[in-house]
Every structure is written in structure tokens, then in C-alpha cells.
Write a structure and sequence with these properties.
With 290 residues, this protein is α/β, with parallel strands linked by helices. It is built from 11 helices and 12 strands. The strands form 2 sheets. Strands 1, 2, 3, 4, 5, 6, 7, 9, 11 and 12 form a 10-stranded mixed β-sheet that branches. Strands 8-10 form a two-stranded antiparallel sheet.
């Protein structure tokens, strides 16, 4: 069995997919394509003939990663975004660290922006207060405070090993044994909050989520989202609360998000926030996550 299988989900992944795959060349690599139309698949087959390609209808990030993990051969899965790439021997460092910490279901590297600056990846488990600090801009008052910026762990400097609630998902090393025990991504989360749900389930089952700064991955990211993507982010919040905190707490989260987005739309006049407020006012939490 290989040490690690790399799973990359693509959807119109040019121009970054080549740099992504070059950084893990020589590994067991599975690309799951969710319906690209920009030449992504042709580029992969021409430049990386050893890569296994699975083409399927768009099942979101969770569904795409699940298809790749089911086809993988490794003891570990590296779930790597198509706009991210591993720096140097980072993957070997991740595997060595995970081998030394058998209690870890997930190990995340330090993420960097393309200019070499830190991209914050350590997160706190969602609560109503933590949502409020994000959607009401409370975290802007004291961005380095754990009290006022708890969702993004404003107090954490990302330079030490730590057990954390969850990690954002551009690059995650996942232990196959843990995934077999807990199950793969919940595909009801089409996009957004699927990694929060998964790591919540790992921790509830007694596994750990560890941040390891000894390995680094560059992640482009930073794109602003609108339309359906923004709505899916909100739906993901509601689904997580309903699943892990119950229907009443999910409804409280809906109301909090609704009034937050109404205030933001009034002040900032951005269309995606108006669309988000319309979505949240169109039903209760239970109906919106069907």
C-alpha cells in the first residue's frame, strides 16, 4: 500500500492545476473532475499521463473528494485543492508527523498566500457568537483576540503544533483508518461546511485534528463568491447547526445570519449579501436545508 494518495477535485481548474500536480508528481494521484469545460482534463492527460482521472457530474467538493478517496490506495489521503501546491518536501513531512501521532485523523500544514504571507487556516467550532463575530464584523474590533475573533482563532500565530477544532480545507492529510471508522464526507453538504462537519465527527469519535507548521502549502484562493456559491455557504452553516446542535439552534443561526446580512446589505450594498438575505428570509432553517 502506498504511503499517501493525493486527491484533487477539479472544476475549470486552469491555470493552476499544472503547478498543483507538479508539486506531488510521482505519487498516487487521483483527479476527480466535476464537469470542467476549460480544457482541464485535456491538459492533465497530456502533461500527467500517470494521473488517474475520474469524470463525474458535479457533486460538490465533498462528493468529489469521496470519489477520489474510494479509488485511492494510500494509508493517507492528501486532499489538495486544484489551486494549491505543496512546498518542497512538505508532503513527506506531513506523513512523518502523522506517523508519529497515530491519534490524529487529520493533519493540516501551514498555508501561504502566493506572496509568501500567512494564510490563516485554524478555526474554532461554530457557535452563534462566533458567527456573529464574522457576519457583524465584530472581529474587526480586535482581530488578534480570541474573544472577538474566535471563529478565525485571532489569538493563534500558526507557528506551533496544536490540537484544533478544525482546519480550512485547501490541503488536509487524512488517515485512512480514521476515515474508515467515521465515514467519508457527508454529501448533503454540497459545498462549504463539509470539512467542519467531518472534523466535528472525527473529534466526537475520539480522534484529533492537528495543525503542523513544519509543512507548507501555497494556496491561491481569495476569490470572492456570489450568487449560488454564497447561498451554499449560508446553507452549509444551517446544515451544520441542524446536524450537530439541533433544529432550534439552526433556526437561531438563520435569524442571526438574516439580520446580519440585512444590515450588511444596507450599509455595503453588495448584491451577494442581498441575495443571501433573500434566501434566508424564504423559509425556516428546516426547509432551507432540504
Amino acid at each position: 500500500m502506498a504511503d499517501v494518495s493525493v486527491v484533487v477535485v477539479t472544476y475549470n481548474a486552469l491555470p493552476w492545476i499544472e503547478k498543483c500536480l507538479e508539486s506531488v508528481d510521482g505519487r498516487d494521484i487521483i483527479v476527480v473532475d466535476n464537469g470542467s469545460t476549460d480544457g482541464t482534463i485535456a491538459t492533465i492527460r497530456e502533461r500527467f499521463p500517470a494521473v488517474r482521472v475520474i469524470e463525474q457530474e458535479n457533486k460538490g467538493m465533498g462528493g468529489g473528494n469521496n470519489a477520489g478517496m474510494r479509488a485511492a490506495r494510500g494509508r493517507y489521503f492528501l486532499l489538495l485543492n486544484s489551486d494549491a501546491w505543496v512546498v518542497g518536501d512538505g508532503l513527506d513531512e506531513l506523513v512523518a508527523f502523522a506517523d508519529a501521532h497515530p491519534e490524529a485523523a487529520v493533519v493540516g500544514p501551514r498555508l501561504l498566500n502566493t506572496d509568501g504571507t500567512l494564510q490563516r487556516s485554524v478555526r474554532g467550532e461554530p457557535t452563534l457568537w462566533r458567527l456573529a463575530t464574522e457576519y457583524l464584523f465584530i472581529r474587526k474590533l480586535a482581530p488578534h483576540s480570541r474573544l472577538f475573533n474566535p471563529l478565525y482563532r485571532g489569538d493563534f500565530d500558526h507557528d506551533r503544533i496544536a490540537e484544533v477544532d478544525w482546519l480550512s480545507g485547501p490541503a488536509l492529510l487524512v488517515r485512512r483508518e480514521a476515515a474508515d471508522a467515521v465515514g467519508l464526507f457527508d454529501e448533503d453538504f454540497f459545498m462549504f461546511s463539509e470539512e467542519v462537519d467531518w472534523m466535528t465527527r472525527f473529534r466526537r469519535a475520539g480522534w484529533k485534528v492537528l495543525f503542523f507548521p513544519g509543512a507548507e502549502v501555497v494556496h491561491v484562493g481569495g476569490a470572492s463568491h456570489g450568487g449560488r456559491i454564497y447561498v451554499e455557504n449560508l446553507r452549509g452553516h444551517l446544515r451544520w447547526f441542524a446536524k450537530h446542535r439541533g433544529a432550534k439552534e439552526a433556526e437561531r443561526a438563520r435569524k442571526l445570519l438574516l439580520w446580519s446580512l440585512r444590515a450588511r446589505a444596507l450599509v455595503l450594498r453588495r448584491p451577494h449579501e442581498r441575495e443571501g438575505a433573500r434566501f434566508l428570509s424564504s423559509g425556516n432553517a428546516r426547509t432551507l436545508i432540504r
